[in-house]
Amino acid sequence: MGTIKTAIPAVSPLTGEPMKRADAERLAGVLKALADPARLRLLSLIQSAPEREASVSDLTTPLGLSQPTVSHHLRILTEAGLLERDKRGVWAYYRLMPSTIAVIADLLTPPRKRATRRTR
């Protein structure tokens, strides 16, 4: 999977408007990154961690996965724009990109529900 840090499309597949092929491919890449249970657990663990960030060593035991496997999943989530990575000395810390998560949620919410959700 290539780097998907390019902008997520603004057109939802639920609006009734046809998506451009490149937009559909970008959105599918992000959704593919989210489609793995281990990756969803990683996002949850990072979001619930103190300071809302975690290193690979913080995540291996709770997931029951090896360091290389956790690093692989973190790389995919980072390339998809769902996490940001902050290198500090020999350690890298990962944190969620709430703006990306919000865009995806908005794209997958039918337009009528989106209008209702915003007015509350």
Provide the fold topology.
Elements: H1 21-34, H2 37-48, E1 54-55, H3 56-63, H4 67-79, E2 83-88, E3 91-96, H5 98-107, H6 111-119
Antiparallel strand pairs: 1-3, 2-3
Helix pairs in contact: 3-4
Overview of the molecule:
With 120 residues, this protein is mainly alpha-helical. It has one domain: Orthogonal Bundle (Arc Repressor Mutant, subunit A), CATH 1.10.10. The chain is built from six helices and three strands; from the N terminus they run H-H-E-H-H-E-E-H-H. It has helices at 21-34, 37-48, 56-63, 67-79, 98-107, 111-119, and strands at 54-55, 83-88, 91-96. The chain has a three-stranded antiparallel sheet with strand order 1-3-2. The model is unreliable at 1-6 (pLDDT under 50). This is Transcriptional regulator, ArsR family protein. Keywords: DNA-binding, Transcription, Transcription regulation. Pfam families: HTH_5. Residues 19-116 form the HTH arsR-type domain.
Task: Offer a quick outline of the entry.
The chain is mostly helical and 120 residues long. It has helices spanning 21-34, 37-48, 56-63, 67-79, 98-107, 111-119, and strands at residues 54-55, 83-88, 91-96. The protein has one domain (21-119): Arc Repressor Mutant, subunit A.
List keywords for this structure.
3 strands, 55% helix, 120 residues, Arc Repressor Mutant, subunit A, disordered N terminus, mainly alpha
